[in-house]
Every structure is written in C-alpha cells, then in structure tokens.
Here is the input.
Amino acid sequence: MLNEPENKDDIPLNAAESPAVVIELIHSLKVKDVMTNAVLAGEKTQTLRFIQALLRENKVSGVPILEDQKLIGIVSIEDIINALDKGYINDIAENRMTKNIVSLQDDMPLSFAISCLNKYKYGRFPVLNKGKELVGMLTSSDVIKALLIEMNREVLRLEKSQKPVDNAAYHSKYSEMEFTTVHYDFELAGRASTEFKKALKLRGFDPKLIRRIAIASYELEINQVVHSEGGVMRCSILPDKVVIVASDTGPGIEDVNQALKEGYSTANEYVRSLGWGAGMGLANTKRVSDEFTIDSALGIGTTVRSVVYVNSAKEET
Here is the structure.
C-alpha cells in the first residue's frame, strides 16, 4: 500500500553496517536511479468507486492523486474498504483521500531513502522532483534489485581488471583459494563453490570427494549470502585433506545446536520467496564433513570450518 505500514522486515541494507562495496553504492546512487518511473495515478474529482475499479484492473494496492502533476493525496485499498463499509463509495477522492503523506525527492541519496523505508515500514514511497511533481515510486524491492545489479557490474569490472591466472600454479596439486560474498547477492551466489569444484576436478580428485566438498562449500556460501553482512570463502587443498573455511561478519548464531537442526531457519519471507532458506545448510555441511566446527559470536560474526579427508571412507548420503 502507499504510505501504509506493512508487516515487512527492514530492508537488509544500511549505510552504517553494510560491506564497503555496498556502502559505496548506497552513497553513489540517487533515488531517481532506483525508483520505478511508470506511475498509475488518479484525479481528485474521480469517485472512490472509479478508483476501486482502477485498483482492481491494475492489480495495485493504492494510487496517488494528482492535480497538475502535483501530489495532493493517496487513495489506498484500505480507504476503499472503509468507503464500502461506511457507505460513501460514490464520494469523490478529494474528500476522502489520505493527505498526510511521507514522500521522497528524486535527487535524495539512496542512503536517506533506505533509512525512511526502515523507519516508516511503508510498502512504497511517492517520489517527487524539485517542482513537487510526482515522478516515480520507490519500494524496498526496487532498492534491492538495483543494488544487486550494480554489485554484479562492479564484480564483473573487477574480474576484468584482474591479472591473468598463472596456469602452472593453478594446476599444481595443492593450493589456496579465496572468494568474497555479498549479502543478498544471489546473482553470484555459488561462484566460490563452483571454482572450488573446478579446481578439484582439474587436480584429479575422486568425484565422490569432490561432491562432498561441493555440497559443504555451496551450503556455507549461500548461508553467508542469506544471513550475514558479507564474508569470505576459503578453500585449502592439502596433501591429505581439503579444508573449507567460511568466515563472515553479521548477527552471529544465537543457538548453534538449534541452527544445526534440519529445517530450522531464520530466513525472512523475501529470502523464502526466492527459494532459499530451507534450513538445511549447516546440517548438510556437517553431514558431508569429516570434521566440522562453528565459532560464532552475536553481533560479530560466524566462522565455520569443514574438513574432508582425501582418503576418507565416509560417503555422501
């Protein structure tokens, strides 16, 4: 709804505690870079019944009311329900619309908009230009989508600027590998585990061993993307074992024993809507590991260490 509180989690980004790359993007982007430009609007002389049909036909929960392109109010689905209940559905919007509106300006820093989204818990905000004309709408989904796109572009830029890989060193039997993860960057989620798996294949490791390591590294990587503020995935390929260490900064784990139970998850609805957060990550990692440890501190972060021995008789089940 427009400027109506919803049961939403805070947008999982902020200018104070997010990873450096996210902070840089938050400060470089403006509201106009992120907002949705196409806006459905109504007029003050239209009846609430007419606006009810407008909402239904366009499958939206509210519309801004404009006069000479200036925002003068909002009619939400709740306003329509009240009108139906109290018998004034044929009244005009000007008489019944919500006039106390919290809005954003299109040239505001994105960091300010994120603070407003977290503070007011509204579903969306109208965006005005300097002339007080309505030019767009902003939702938390708009912010997350834009930041993921920008982070992906930044990663691609950094990858192109990296020096060529030393093939002789890469194909040596043993090595150290390291990748960073970014909170809610599902675009690149799984990159580290894919590279770990590729390196093990090139070195001729047993397929069953590779599968166990791939499961452990993928589960830990996804956990970082979903639950932490960003972290590092490290893989040490040694003569007798492969060690995966996942270290992150973030909320930490309040109850490690509970977190290890299959199906237990603290993922929010947004993450679940994307198909993640089934609550199997740590349980799966422990299951395929020969050694498994967790060191977690609330408000600081978590480090998980998974070890798979080269000559292990353990099977991935």
About this structure: Confidence is low (pLDDT under 50) at residues 1-9, 167-171. Residues 140-161 form the longest helix (22 residues).
